[in-house]
Amino acid sequence: MINKRFFKTKDEVEVTFEVPDEQVDSKVSLVADFADWQPIAMQRVAKSKIFRFKTRLPKDSQFEFRYLVDDRRWVNDPHADLYRPNGFGEDNGLVSTFE
């Protein structure tokens, strides 16, 4: 799941990425072009049973991403704004920060 919070006075958007923990054995990483495709560990939120990562991204842009589950399985977010072929025979999710 992806949640976005737009600020009236800032040129950025707070974006929260979430993955339910029932899909995960031990860990989830967010891998995205805004992080130069380097895995970012998502934190398990104990009481809500999800993995979460929150960041701020520039407004009026689009970013590609995927989740790497347990260091072995790629997962797309079903709530991505769009999907784009990634050159490896699969799709990347796309998150848009256009309001």
Overview of the structural elements:
InterPro entries: Ig-like_fold (IPR013783), Ig_E-set (IPR014756). This is Glycogen recognition site of AMP-activated protein kinase. The protein has 99 residues and is mostly beta strands. Helix content is 0%, strand content 55%. The chain has a single domain, classed as Immunoglobulins (Immunoglobulin-like, Sandwich). It has strands at residues 2-6, 12-20, 28-32, 40-41, 43-45, 50-58, 62-69, 73-75, 82-85, 91-96. The two termini are 18 Å apart. The model has no long low-confidence stretch (mean pLDDT 95).
Secondary structure: elements and pairs:
Layout: E1 2-6, E2 12-20, E3 28-32, E4 40-41, E5 43-45, E6 50-58, E7 62-69, E8 73-75, E9 82-85, E10 91-96
Antiparallel strand pairs: 1-2, 2-6, 3-4, 3-7, 5-6, 7-8, 7-10, 9-10
Could you provide a short overview of the structure?
The protein is mostly beta strands.
Pick out its properties.
Immunoglobulin-like; single chain; 99 residues; six-stranded antiparallel beta sheet; four-stranded antiparallel beta sheet; mainly beta
Strand percentage, roughly?
A: over 45%
- How many beta strands in the DSSP annotation? 10
Instruction: Tell me the major beta sheet.
Output: 6 strands, antiparallel
CATH architecture: Sandwich
Our measurement of the CA-to-CA distance between the termini, rounded to an integer number of angstroms, reads 18 Å
Our count of helices gives 0
Which residue ranges are poorly predicted, with pLDDT under 50 across at least 5 consecutive positions? none
Going by helix content, strand content and strand pairing, the class is mainly beta
Shape category: globular
Per CATH, the superfamily is Immunoglobulins
Percent range of helical residues: under 10%
C-alpha Rg (nearest Å): 13 Å
For the residues shown, what is the average pLDDT? 95
